[in-house]
Write a structure and sequence with these properties.
This is Dystrophin. By secondary structure, this protein is mainly alpha-helical. It has a single domain, classed as Methane Monooxygenase Hydroxylase, Chain G, domain 1 (Up-down Bundle), CATH 1.20.58. Helix content is about 85%, strand content about 0%. It has helices at about 1-30, 35-50, 55-65, 70-95. It starts with a helix and ends with a helix.
Length: about 100
């Protein structure tokens, strides 16, 4: 059940990361019109207010499974891929705002 819960949190966060990526990309293609830029920034800020609870759950569930010796390699790969994407998008957001 821990594995299923971890996968559910990873799916939720992946959906959130996809939305974040779409919003960041949409702000990169805006013309210099002030209203359009302000609207895009407000949209991006609303996505950024996402709570960190899911990331905490992902970290704790992953660690529990790894400590238990359950699917160590698969979990490690999924967690590394998720964390790398999260960091990449965080950096992209910081450089866009």
């Amino acid at each position: 059940s821990c594995w299923i819960e971890l996968l559910q949190y990873l799916d939720l966060e992946t959906t959130w990361l996809n939305t974040l990526e779409e919003r960041v990309q949409s702000t990169e293609n805006l013309p210099d019109k002030l209203d359009a830029v302000n609207e895009a920034l407000e949209s991006l800020e609303s996505v950024l207010r996402h709570p960190a609870d899911n990331r905490t759950q992902i970290r704790e569930l992953g660690q529990t499974l790894i400590d238990g010796g359950i699917l160590d390699d698969i979990i490690s790969e999924k967690l590394e891929a998720f964390n790398a994407r999260y960091e990449e998008l965080s950096h992209l957001v910081r450089s866009s705002v």
